[in-house]
Amino acid sequence: MLLLIGSAALTAGGGGRFGNVAVIHVEGVIACSGGKGGPFSAGVAGSDTIIDQLARANKDKNVKAIILRINSPGGSAAASQEIYQEIRRAAGKKKIVVSMGDVAASGGYYIACAADTIVANPATMTGSIGVIMELQNMEKLFGKIGLAPETVKSGPFKDIGSPSRALTQEERRILQGMIDQVYNQFVDDVTRGRKKMTREGVKKLADGRIYTGQQAKELGLVDELGGMRAAVRAAARLSGIKGEPSIVSYDTPSLIDMLMGTVTTSIESAITGALESTLPPRGLPAMR
After folding, report:
1. For residues 178 and 131, what is the distance between their CA atoms, to the nearest angstrom?
2. Using N-to-C axis directions, what is the helix angle for 47-59 and 77-91, rounded to 10°?
């Protein structure tokens, strides 16, 4: 395990001469968890923590705009929706700018489209608008190793998605209905966020494919090309800040937090995120 501990250049609090711009990082797999920055929470973007940071920045009278720096392949559909809704709430008071890093795809794009402006690097991987649920049928494998699972259940669909057997046609219909419903929610929210695009226009792009930042700009999924500095300029412009804004961070954990704080929660978050990114989420639609 590699543990990197360094001092943060950005700190929360204080009023800049021209106004503050808050920076909130969304790093890793999006999950319904805390992910509070402990040494075991790397790779998890916990919705609880991100929502708390957004709420604090939104209440800070010294903060004129908020930048979300997104570097995420997506993750939990429900967690992505929670963050999306909090961004929309914050956008009622503050200007919100998204700065995309290496990747802001699927759930990462879902939360991005709630912002006032999206800035991406030309080589950023984004898009992947869609929903997926992967299940494994291990019935033949179980037979080869002599394993014969037995299930006692309260109803015909209680073991839907069980790896011990294939899906029935009715079960497949039920799961496809779930996926279609969450997909339509995704398309609706992208349409709501990308105000210049029609739902039909969004749906044409929402077949799961990924786009470079440059392609996304040409298609209307992204507003500007550039890095973090371009996002800061956009935030200052949108919020009416004259001069150089002060940058503050709401997501830098202290050394004590990293070493001692919420270790149990962090371990749980890391495991949850790893499972969501690598294993089929039985019964849970994912955006990745």
Report:
1. 10
2. 0
**Fold (topology level) of 20-287:** 2-enoyl-CoA Hydratase; Chain A, domain 1 (3.90.226)
Annotate the chain with three-state secondary structure: CCCCCCCCCCCCCCCCCCCEEEEEEEECEEECCCCCCCCCCCCEEEHHHHHHHHHHHHHCCCEEEEEEEEEECCEEHHHHHHHHHHHHHHHCCCEEEEEEEEEEECHHHHHHCCCCEEEECCCCEEECCCCECCCCCCHHHHHHCCCCCCCCCCCCCCCCCCCCCCCCHHHHHHHHHHHHHHHHHHHHHHHHHCCCCCHHHHHHHCCCCEEEHHHHHHHCCCCEECCHHHHHHHHHHHHCCCCCCEEEECCCCCHHHHHHCCHHHHHHHHHHHHHHHHCCCCCCCEEC
Q: What is the set of active-site residues?
A: 106, 158
Tell me whether strands 117-120 and 63-72 are parallel, antiparallel or unpaired: unpaired
Share of the chain above pLDDT 70, in %: 78
Is pLDDT at 20 greater than 70 in this prediction?
Answer: yes
**Cβ atoms of residues 278 and 136 within 8 Å:** no
Considering only CA atoms, which of 89, 139, 117, 109 is closest in space to residue 208? 109
| Spatial contact of 225 and 121, defined as CB atoms under 8 Å apart | yes
Cβ atoms of residues 113 and 266 within 8 Å: no
pLDDT, one tens digit per residue, over 44-98 is 899 999 999 999 999 999 999 999 999 999 999 999 999 999 999 999 999 999 9
pLDDT digits (tens, 9 = 90+) for 212-264: 999 999 999 999 999 999 999 999 999 999 888 899 987 655 444 445 444 44
